């Protein structure tokens, strides 16, 4: 369970459709992992690049005071639709130990986003 007050940012963004109104809500919270098992980096780059802003890839959230990555994922449970608005797509965990998996990554902040080959982004339930 989680309590959402009148001024909660959640009520003023896309998730408001799931929460509905202020008060105590029972939520299904889970961790998701996006692993880059391909041959090239997933490169988004600088979130303030006008190309991303013009095409709706990132959207500034005045309540949270950071950019949201608009196309992270769509989830469903039974007949109850839901979605996940990620605020950051970054390399957080090294999943593979191969010659093609770098030991470090340039995508380690929310200002310069992407997922390196062999790495993943873990979006934990508590975020």
UniProtKB/TrEMBL annotation:
Pfam families: Lysyl_oxidase. GO terms for molecular function: copper ion binding; oxidoreductase activity, acting on the CH-NH2 group of donors, oxygen as acceptor. It comes from the Eukaryota. InterPro entries: Lysyl_oxidase. This is 10812_t:CDS:1. It comes from Dentiscutata erythropus.
